[in-house]
Amino acid sequence: MEKKRVLITGAAGFLGSHLCDRFINEGYYVIGMDNLITGDLQNIEHLFRLENFEFYHHDVSNYVHVPGKLDYVLHFASPASPIDYLKIPIQTLKVGSLGTHNLLGLSKAKGARMLIASTSEIYGDPSVNPQPEEYWGNVNPVGPRGVYDEAKRFQEAMTMAYHTFHGLETRIVRIFNTYGPRMRLNDGRVLPAFIGQALRGEDLTVFGDGSQTRSFCYVDDLIEGIYRLLLSDYAQPVNIGNPDEITIRQFGEEIIKLTGTTQKLVTKELPVDDPKQRRPDITKAREILGWEPKVSRAEGLKITYEYFKSLPKEALFNREHKDFTTYNR
Ligand code: UDP
Question: In this structure, are 129 and 249 located in the same domain?
Answer without folding.
Answer: no
